[in-house]
Amino acid sequence: MLDWSKASHYNFLEDFRLLYDTHHDIHSKPWADPVIQMTMKQIMCIKFVKEEINDCNIEIQHLFTHILDEDTNICANLQRLQQEGSSITSAVEEYAICRH
């Protein structure tokens, strides 16, 4: 009898014992070999890592663009404050140096 409370906790196909009680001999199948199972898990891990690297590369580009935009924005505001002779120019200059 299949119990959902037990089956819902299984992480991998080899944990699912229902397949062991069939009339077909699944132990002779290539995917039943523990070495092949471990290899397939490693292949999936590598696939997910490659996807994560791709996502990180995209995020790096976003971060780099944000840094450039922030620097451009700070410089433009600093020039505007200097032209206006604002009293907060020195504070913005210090902030710009820290951010740069």
Task: Describe this entry's structure for a reader.
The protein is an all-alpha fold and 100 residues long. The protein has one domain (4-99). Helix content is 66%, strand content 0%. The chain is built from 3 helices and no strands. It has helices at residues 4-7, 34-84, 89-99. The longest helix has 51 residues, at 34-84. The chain is rod-shaped and about 90 Å long. The N and C termini lie far apart (66 Å).
How much is the radius of gyration in Å?
29 Å
Which series of helices and strands comes N to C? HHH
Instruction: Tell me the β content.
Output: under 5%
Determine the structural class based on helices, strands and strand pairing. Answer: mainly alpha
The overall number of domains is: 1
Summed over residues and divided by their number, the pLDDT gives a mean of 83
For the structure shown, list the relevant keywords:
single chain, mainly alpha, 100 residues, 3 helices, rod-shaped, 0% strand
Summarize the structure.
This protein is mainly alpha-helical and 100 residues long. Helices cover 66% and strands 0% of the residues.
What layout of secondary structure does this protein have?
Elements (H helix, E strand, L loop, with lengths): L3 H4 L26 H51 L4 H11 L1
Helix pairs in contact: 2-3
